[in-house]
Amino acid sequence: MNNQIAVLITCHNRKEKTIDCLKSLFSCQLPETYVLNVFLVDDGSTDGTGETVKNEYPQVNVIRGNGNLYWNRGMHLAWETASRVKDFDFYLWLNDDTILFENVIEVLINACELKQKKAIILAATRSKENDDCTYSGFNVQGQLISPNGNLQAAETFNGNCVMIPKAVYQVVGNLDPLFWHCIGDIDYGFRAGKKGIESFVAPEFLAFCDGHDTLPKWCLKEVPFQKRMEALYSPLGNSHPYHYFRFELRHFGILVAIKHFLSIHLRVTFPQLWK
């Protein structure tokens, strides 16, 4: 009997990146009896992403979004759609700006089997320009974990390339659609941990994905105040005060949530106080 993997992707107006990601995905070596089923949310792209995907990869299930889903809610829709199709053995989160190495699925599956298919296994990514780790899991100190040849426990993780076995999905469920663009992946790792589900970084780098090191627009003193406020409360602000408050209340308590709610607004008002 085949083992079914649902690959979950969301995209918006990054046609070339999305196609490159899919090309790397379909070039991966698969363990015997494993089958890929791809569910891609095209969230209102105007550059023909969805149409190009259907033409070049007709086996991909393209789901139309309304243009207001962004990453987390797009991934939630992809996952919800996949779960209604069948009871998949694994769910693989995949960012469309991630270029997979050929052995990624084999390594992730092997690690899942070592953990009796009851743990989350994530692939760390590195920059194409150097060996810097760009996305991975985080340890209890909040530091990014770089692969060292062994499975390493993570408290939570970035959602760029993450393998979720069926047994984990049955316990933790889907991403929380409360979150618009970001935070949902970090929240999922913490939710899993609270339910006794462990997360591990795979032993080696398994993909390329460039980092985004620039500060959000709302942190930049050269941006006018009104524009900073709009950026802070936009889906792409990374720290939407309401969502971030709910996230911290859930995982760190009311005092931490209030503290950072106030400090975020202090920073957007006086960005020159931060270097």
Write up this protein:
By secondary structure, this protein is α/β, with parallel strands linked by helices. The chain is built from nine helices and 14 strands. The strands form three sheets. It has an eight-stranded mixed β-sheet with strand order 3-2-1-4-12-6-13-10. It has a four-stranded mixed β-sheet with strand order 5-14-7-8. A two-stranded antiparallel sheet has the order 9-11. Helix 2 (49-56) links the parallel strand 2 and strand 3. The radius of gyration is 19 Å and the shape is globular.
Task: Describe this protein with a few key phrases.
8-stranded mixed beta sheet, 37% helix, globular, alpha/beta
Give the SSE string: EHEHEHEEHEEEEEEEHHEEHHH
The number of E-state strands comes to 14
Could you tell me the mean pLDDT?
A: 95
End-to-end Cα distance:
57 Å
Which helices and strands appear, and what pairs or packs with what?
Layout: E1 3-11, H1 15-26, E2 34-43, H2 49-56, E3 61-65, H3 70-85, E4 90-94, E5 99-100, H4 104-114, E6 120-122, E7 125-126, E8 133-135, E9 137-138, E10 152-154, E11 156-157, E12 161-165, H5 166-172, H6 184-194, E13 199-201, E14 207-208, H7 225-232, H8 241-252, H9 254-269
Parallel strand pairs: 1-2, 1-4, 2-3, 6-13, 7-14
Antiparallel strand pairs: 4-12, 5-14, 6-12, 7-8, 9-11, 10-13
Helix pairs in contact: 1-2, 8-9
What's this model, at a glance?
The protein is α/β, with parallel strands linked by helices and 275 residues long.
